[in-house]
Amino acid sequence: MDVLRSLELGVVAAVAAVLGSMLGLGGGVFLVPIFTLFFGVDQKLAIGASAVAVVTNSVVGSSVHLRSRFTNLRLAMLLQVTTASGAVVGALIAVWADPRAINAVFGIALVYAAASMAVRRRANAADAAAPDPHRLGAAFDDPATRQTVRYVPRRVPLGLGISGLAGTLSGMLGIGGGVILVPAMNLLMGIPVKAAAGTSSFMVGITAVATAFVFYAEGKIDATVVVPAMVGVFLGGQYGSRLTRRVQTQNLVVVFVLILLYLGVSLLLKAVGITLPGQR
Predict the structure, then answer these.
(1) Which CA distances in Å does 258 have to 102, 194, 249?
(2) pLDDT, tens digit (0-9, with 9 covering 90-100), for 50-69
(3) Residue 3, C-beta contacts closer than 8 angstroms, at least 6 positions apart
(4) Spatial CA neighbour of 190 closest among 152, 137, 134
(5) Which residues lie closer than 8 Å to 47 by C-beta, 6 or more apart?
(6) What's the CA gap between 198 and 201, in Å, rounded?
(7) Which pTM was predicted?
(8) Which of 18, 27, 148, 226 suits 205 as a labelling partner, its CA being 20 to 30 A distant?
């Protein structure tokens, strides 16, 4: 791989990390389809590289989210039980799955993410005065609105089940699971977007470790793809997580929805053998 190609992969990874950090999606939701569609990277090598990069993005982004108190650690560790277990199962499936099947699953996941992100603009946070039997309630100061946001997660058992699904999808696609976790926490559990993003950012790193381990054991980790991805994600993750503090996140939803729809439809078309102009 030449220097220019490595630089291109690094820049793409940085942009993916900025977008991923801002909404807790882990970056892989953008990284894998762009690497495969526009750079011709082998799909499973791209998934392996994304899993490693998601770990990097989570470590960088989580530190900022933790200082901002966006991360609900008690909730994260509870949901992580089912998420990590699902990630191992998903990674084992991905190693042997037909690439067309993975493209189809990934395409559906991206279209779902786009739709849920559009819907969640109207979602309301949980009632801060609601009962808190699991002691998972938390609060944070939002610099963008200069208000203190308090919330109590609801439907915790349902959240645990969905976290397992998110983990399985994460293992299959190397995306960290944030594409499912963030909308689920916001829409179903009533967690504010920034808290959902911060909590997801912490969780996806642990989940991606399980995925990366399985792909490494199967020889699906290529340093020529992983290294540029890690460098780009390290730089982009720092900027994206800091930007979250200052930006009204819902104002960016329209842009993200359009990007996710384009990538999702492209992968669905590729699954049936149709490649759009400019893609590989």
Answers:
(1) 21, 21, 15
(2) 888 878 767 766 777 777 78
(3) none
(4) 152
(5) 32, 94, 102, 172, 173, 174, 211, 215, 220
(6) 5
(7) 0.76
(8) 148
